[in-house]
Write a structure and sequence with these properties.
Blueprint lengths: L3 E6 L2 E6 L3 H10 L7 H10 L15 H14 L21
Antiparallel strand pairs: 1-2
Helix pairs in contact: 1-2, 2-3
Length: 97
Amino acid sequence: MAKSIKVTLGDQEYEIQRLNIAQLEEVQEAFQGPPVKAPFTVLRVALKRATPKAFLDEIAPDLDQMKNAVEEILKLSGLATEKKDANPPKGETSETS
């Protein structure tokens, strides 16, 4: 499993480390609250250890960047898995791919 990923937020690329135990706990707690809050918590927590140093009040990502970053951070930390293709090629099923 990778130890870090690169995500682009606004005009800046950040290297994000796999979440540590304390960060995983913080993210898990966010998913217990209002669903709209969880993605922002994932980004805020992950950016604490980002390179270059991230200043949240200076980052202006678009919605696609935010969605992609959150998905990749969750995958990196083992909190999400790759989605299986809902429409596999003819002759294959999602169980065999």
